[in-house]
Amino acid sequence: MPNKAAAVENLFRPKMMIQILSKKSESIRPCWNCQSDNIAFYNCGSCTSIQQFLHDTDYFTLFNIGYKLSVDPDVLEKQYYELSRRFHPDYYQQRSKAEQDISLENTALLNTAYQTLQDPLKKTTYLLRLIEGDEALPTQAPAELFEEIFEIQENLETLRDLVPSDTDSRTKLAKTLCSAAKEMTQFQAEENAQLKALFLKWDALETQRRDNGFSAAQKELLTKMKQILSHAGYLERILQDIKTALQ
After folding, report:
1. pTM of the prediction?
2. Quick one: which of 14, 12, 221 has its CA closest to 131?
3. Cα(45)–Cα(106) distance, rounded to whole angstroms?
4. If DSSP codes are grouped into helix, strand and coil, which group holds residue 88?
């Protein structure tokens, strides 16, 4: 049985996409319990012991959806509940400590994967990290909103400097900042719609892909997705600053 701490760390560490799609991935391994090669993805065919997810299993592979981004939520939910029943710790209370640990680890990974794949921004971020590595995605202000963001920052600074007794100025600034927050939120909604449109294009190209490489068209889509994520992170911080200032 592998070291538990190391196993958990490996399970949650994203891998490079080329590594994941490689035919040399850890697709065959002996059962940890009886060393038989007669194992499926989840259980040993000889001793029936539950098997730990392969260390190079990513969230998309775990749910058997390919590297697709426009996944039917009902399909994703059905797959989640099927896998949850298979690995639920309650089913392994009378089994060995090793199997109980694997059940907990597999369930933890499954839950994290499901939460990620349900959220458009999270799953796009995850895909980009699979491809480009673990580096944090930079945040950037949308060029279209430079003037509005500059004004928001000025108003936030003014609000912080107001004396508590200046309620009229505080009320006026609060109204202005609330209006600006609505504009930022609307911009986020528009970019989220653009992101979902990019998902459809990505999936169409992904269906056609036959090797480990990505086409120029796919790389262009990834660049556009990355820009939207960059904007989302920046605007979320601005909105949080407004919320904090108005509390």
Report:
1. 0.80
2. 14
3. 19
4. coil
